[in-house]
Structure of Tumor necrosis factor ligand superfamily member 13B-like:
Amino acid sequence: MCDLTHLSSWRNIPSAGLTMLYKALFSLTAIMFCLSLFLAHRVSVLEKDVQKLRGDISQQLNQQRSGGVHGKPAKMSKTGEGMKQSVFQRAQSSLESFSRRVKREQSSCGAPLSFLQLRADTNKQPERRGNITVIPWTVSAQRGSTISQRENRIVVQEDGYYLVFGQVLFESQSTVMGHVIQSWSSTEAETRPTELLRCLQDGTEEACDNTCYSAGTVHLLQGDELEMLIPFRPPALISLEADSTFFGVVQLN
Protein backbone atom coordinates (compact mmCIF):
# COMPACT_ATOMS: atom_id res chain seq x y z
CA MET A 1 0.00 0.00 0.00
CA CYS A 2 1.29 3.50 -0.89
CA ASP A 3 1.52 6.10 1.74
CA LEU A 4 -0.91 8.94 0.66
CA THR A 5 -0.33 11.13 3.62
CA HIS A 6 1.97 13.40 1.56
CA LEU A 7 -0.78 14.03 -0.95
CA SER A 8 -3.08 15.05 1.75
CA SER A 9 -0.45 17.48 3.01
CA TRP A 10 -0.24 19.14 -0.46
CA ARG A 11 -3.95 19.60 -0.38
CA ASN A 12 -3.67 21.43 2.87
CA ILE A 13 -1.18 24.03 1.39
CA PRO A 14 -2.93 27.32 0.56
CA SER A 15 -3.14 28.45 -3.08
CA ALA A 16 -1.01 31.50 -2.36
CA GLY A 17 1.77 29.28 -1.13
CA LEU A 18 1.59 27.17 -4.23
CA THR A 19 1.82 30.23 -6.40
CA MET A 20 4.97 31.38 -4.64
CA LEU A 21 6.43 27.91 -4.97
CA TYR A 22 5.74 27.84 -8.69
CA LYS A 23 7.33 31.27 -9.11
CA ALA A 24 10.39 30.17 -7.21
CA LEU A 25 10.76 27.09 -9.36
CA PHE A 26 10.31 29.16 -12.51
CA SER A 27 12.88 31.67 -11.36
CA LEU A 28 15.32 28.89 -10.56
CA THR A 29 14.73 27.35 -13.96
CA ALA A 30 15.31 30.69 -15.66
CA ILE A 31 18.48 31.26 -13.71
CA MET A 32 19.77 27.79 -14.62
CA PHE A 33 18.92 28.42 -18.27
CA CYS A 34 20.75 31.75 -18.27
CA LEU A 35 23.68 30.16 -16.52
CA SER A 36 23.75 27.44 -19.15
CA LEU A 37 23.75 30.03 -21.92
CA PHE A 38 26.57 31.93 -20.19
CA LEU A 39 28.61 28.78 -19.77
CA ALA A 40 28.03 27.82 -23.40
CA HIS A 41 29.20 31.29 -24.47
CA ARG A 42 32.30 31.05 -22.33
CA VAL A 43 33.09 27.62 -23.72
CA SER A 44 32.74 28.99 -27.24
CA VAL A 45 35.02 31.91 -26.39
CA LEU A 46 37.58 29.59 -24.82
CA GLU A 47 37.53 27.33 -27.87
CA LYS A 48 38.17 30.33 -30.10
CA ASP A 49 41.01 31.45 -27.83
CA VAL A 50 42.53 27.96 -27.94
CA GLN A 51 42.29 27.85 -31.72
CA LYS A 52 43.87 31.30 -31.96
CA LEU A 53 46.63 30.22 -29.60
CA ARG A 54 47.26 27.14 -31.72
CA GLY A 55 47.40 29.29 -34.82
CA ASP A 56 49.91 31.64 -33.18
CA ILE A 57 52.06 28.69 -32.08
CA SER A 58 51.97 27.15 -35.55
CA GLN A 59 52.90 30.48 -37.11
CA GLN A 60 55.85 30.89 -34.76
CA LEU A 61 57.01 27.36 -35.48
CA ASN A 62 56.80 27.98 -39.22
CA GLN A 63 58.75 31.20 -38.84
CA GLN A 64 61.43 29.38 -36.86
CA ARG A 65 61.62 26.66 -39.49
CA SER A 66 61.86 29.17 -42.29
CA GLY A 67 64.48 31.04 -40.31
CA GLY A 68 66.31 27.74 -39.82
CA VAL A 69 66.58 27.35 -43.57
CA HIS A 70 67.62 30.94 -44.30
CA GLY A 71 69.00 32.07 -40.95
CA LYS A 72 71.36 30.79 -38.28
CA PRO A 73 71.30 27.09 -39.19
CA ALA A 74 72.31 28.15 -42.67
CA LYS A 75 75.29 29.85 -41.08
CA MET A 76 75.96 26.65 -39.19
CA SER A 77 75.77 24.75 -42.49
CA LYS A 78 78.19 27.19 -44.01
CA THR A 79 80.40 26.76 -40.96
CA GLY A 80 80.24 22.96 -41.38
CA GLU A 81 81.20 23.26 -45.02
CA GLY A 82 84.04 25.54 -44.01
CA MET A 83 85.23 22.97 -41.47
CA LYS A 84 85.11 20.24 -44.12
CA GLN A 85 87.08 22.41 -46.52
CA SER A 86 89.58 23.20 -43.75
CA VAL A 87 90.04 19.50 -42.93
CA PHE A 88 90.46 18.70 -46.63
CA GLN A 89 93.00 21.48 -47.03
CA ARG A 90 94.97 20.25 -44.02
CA ALA A 91 94.92 16.68 -45.33
CA GLN A 92 96.01 17.86 -48.78
CA SER A 93 98.78 19.95 -47.22
CA SER A 94 99.98 16.96 -45.17
CA LEU A 95 99.94 14.76 -48.27
CA GLU A 96 101.95 17.31 -50.24
CA SER A 97 104.42 17.65 -47.35
CA PHE A 98 104.80 13.87 -47.15
CA SER A 99 105.32 13.66 -50.92
CA ARG A 100 108.01 16.35 -50.77
CA ARG A 101 109.72 14.54 -47.91
CA VAL A 102 109.70 11.25 -49.81
CA LYS A 103 111.17 12.99 -52.85
CA ARG A 104 113.88 14.56 -50.69
CA GLU A 105 114.73 11.20 -49.16
CA GLN A 106 114.81 9.58 -52.57
CA SER A 107 117.05 12.32 -53.94
CA SER A 108 119.33 12.11 -50.92
CA CYS A 109 119.55 8.34 -51.21
CA GLY A 110 120.25 8.52 -54.91
CA ALA A 111 120.47 5.23 -56.76
CA PRO A 112 119.33 1.97 -55.11
CA LEU A 113 121.97 0.34 -52.92
CA SER A 114 124.01 -2.43 -54.47
CA PHE A 115 124.68 -5.96 -53.30
CA LEU A 116 126.44 -9.04 -54.61
CA GLN A 117 126.30 -12.62 -53.40
CA LEU A 118 128.48 -15.40 -54.76
CA ARG A 119 127.93 -19.14 -54.58
CA ALA A 120 130.30 -22.00 -55.21
CA ASP A 121 130.68 -23.00 -58.84
CA THR A 122 129.67 -26.66 -58.89
CA ASN A 123 131.33 -27.15 -62.28
CA LYS A 124 134.74 -26.62 -60.69
CA GLN A 125 136.58 -28.11 -57.77
CA PRO A 126 138.11 -26.10 -54.91
CA GLU A 127 141.69 -25.09 -55.69
CA ARG A 128 144.58 -25.60 -53.32
CA ARG A 129 147.19 -22.84 -53.04
CA GLY A 130 149.87 -23.79 -50.57
CA ASN A 131 148.25 -24.07 -47.16
CA ILE A 132 144.91 -22.55 -48.19
CA THR A 133 141.90 -23.66 -50.20
CA VAL A 134 140.19 -21.32 -52.66
CA ILE A 135 136.56 -21.90 -53.62
CA PRO A 136 135.64 -21.06 -57.24
CA TRP A 137 132.81 -18.53 -57.13
CA THR A 138 130.00 -17.56 -59.47
CA VAL A 139 127.31 -14.88 -59.16
CA SER A 140 124.21 -15.94 -57.24
CA ALA A 141 122.42 -12.57 -56.85
CA GLN A 142 123.39 -9.03 -57.79
CA ARG A 143 121.95 -5.51 -58.00
CA GLY A 144 123.60 -2.25 -58.96
CA SER A 145 127.04 -1.55 -60.32
CA THR A 146 128.83 -0.48 -57.14
CA ILE A 147 129.83 -4.07 -56.30
CA SER A 148 131.15 -6.46 -58.92
CA GLN A 149 133.14 -9.67 -59.32
CA ARG A 150 136.66 -9.75 -60.67
CA GLU A 151 138.20 -13.19 -61.14
CA ASN A 152 137.54 -14.83 -57.76
CA ARG A 153 137.22 -11.62 -55.72
CA ILE A 154 134.57 -9.00 -54.91
CA VAL A 155 135.42 -5.40 -55.89
CA VAL A 156 133.75 -2.22 -54.56
CA GLN A 157 133.60 0.92 -56.71
CA GLU A 158 132.69 3.51 -54.04
CA ASP A 159 133.94 4.53 -50.61
CA GLY A 160 131.56 3.70 -47.78
CA TYR A 161 130.36 1.15 -45.29
CA TYR A 162 129.53 -2.37 -46.39
CA LEU A 163 128.12 -5.49 -44.80
CA VAL A 164 130.43 -8.42 -45.52
CA PHE A 165 129.29 -12.00 -44.87
CA GLY A 166 130.38 -15.54 -45.65
CA GLN A 167 129.58 -19.15 -44.79
CA VAL A 168 131.20 -22.53 -45.41
CA LEU A 169 129.70 -25.94 -44.67
CA PHE A 170 132.25 -28.62 -43.79
CA GLU A 171 131.11 -32.22 -44.26
CA SER A 172 133.89 -34.15 -42.56
CA GLN A 173 135.53 -34.45 -39.19
CA SER A 174 138.48 -32.19 -38.56
CA THR A 175 140.32 -30.64 -35.66
CA VAL A 176 139.74 -27.01 -36.62
CA MET A 177 137.64 -25.69 -39.48
CA GLY A 178 137.02 -22.16 -40.58
CA HIS A 179 137.60 -19.39 -43.11
CA VAL A 180 139.09 -15.90 -43.38
CA ILE A 181 137.74 -12.90 -45.33
CA GLN A 182 140.42 -10.36 -46.24
CA SER A 183 140.64 -7.23 -48.36
CA TRP A 184 143.27 -5.96 -50.78
CA SER A 185 143.66 -2.20 -50.98
CA SER A 186 144.64 -0.58 -54.27
CA THR A 187 145.68 2.70 -52.61
CA GLU A 188 148.57 1.37 -50.55
CA ALA A 189 151.98 1.18 -52.13
CA GLU A 190 152.66 -2.11 -50.38
CA THR A 191 149.85 -4.42 -51.35
CA ARG A 192 149.26 -6.47 -48.25
CA PRO A 193 145.90 -7.98 -47.38
CA THR A 194 143.91 -6.85 -44.35
CA GLU A 195 142.00 -9.47 -42.43
CA LEU A 196 138.38 -8.38 -42.01
CA LEU A 197 136.53 -11.42 -40.63
CA ARG A 198 137.56 -14.76 -39.23
CA CYS A 199 135.56 -17.86 -38.34
CA LEU A 200 137.02 -20.89 -36.55
CA GLN A 201 135.17 -23.90 -35.22
CA ASP A 202 136.29 -27.11 -33.55
CA GLY A 203 135.11 -30.29 -35.22
CA THR A 204 133.69 -33.20 -33.26
CA GLU A 205 133.58 -36.91 -33.94
CA GLU A 206 129.82 -37.01 -33.45
CA ALA A 207 128.93 -34.16 -35.85
CA CYS A 208 130.38 -34.45 -39.34
CA ASP A 209 128.52 -31.44 -40.75
CA ASN A 210 129.54 -28.09 -39.29
CA THR A 211 128.74 -24.61 -40.56
CA CYS A 212 131.10 -21.70 -40.03
CA TYR A 213 129.45 -18.29 -40.57
CA SER A 214 130.80 -14.76 -40.15
CA ALA A 215 129.43 -11.27 -40.88
CA GLY A 216 130.36 -7.71 -40.05
CA THR A 217 130.26 -4.07 -41.12
CA VAL A 218 133.49 -2.63 -42.54
CA HIS A 219 134.59 0.60 -44.21
CA LEU A 220 135.96 0.06 -47.71
CA LEU A 221 137.53 2.36 -50.27
CA GLN A 222 137.05 2.50 -54.00
CA GLY A 223 138.92 -0.31 -55.70
CA ASP A 224 139.22 -2.55 -52.61
CA GLU A 225 139.04 -6.27 -53.38
CA LEU A 226 137.70 -8.92 -51.00
CA GLU A 227 138.28 -12.67 -51.02
CA MET A 228 137.47 -15.66 -48.83
CA LEU A 229 140.20 -18.19 -48.00
CA ILE A 230 139.95 -21.53 -46.20
CA PRO A 231 142.91 -22.98 -44.28
CA PHE A 232 143.77 -26.27 -45.91
CA ARG A 233 142.83 -29.41 -44.00
CA PRO A 234 143.43 -32.70 -45.86
CA PRO A 235 140.42 -34.57 -44.45
CA ALA A 236 138.06 -31.59 -44.78
CA LEU A 237 135.31 -31.80 -47.37
CA ILE A 238 133.47 -28.63 -48.38
CA SER A 239 129.84 -28.52 -49.50
CA LEU A 240 129.39 -26.59 -52.74
CA GLU A 241 125.61 -26.18 -52.44
CA ALA A 242 124.29 -22.63 -52.87
CA ASP A 243 122.49 -22.64 -49.51
CA SER A 244 125.51 -24.02 -47.65
CA THR A 245 128.56 -22.12 -48.91
CA PHE A 246 128.37 -18.49 -50.06
CA PHE A 247 130.16 -15.13 -49.91
CA GLY A 248 128.72 -11.62 -50.35
CA VAL A 249 128.80 -7.87 -49.77
CA VAL A 250 125.92 -5.39 -49.26
CA GLN A 251 126.30 -1.61 -49.63
CA LEU A 252 125.02 0.25 -46.56
CA ASN A 253 125.30 3.92 -47.62
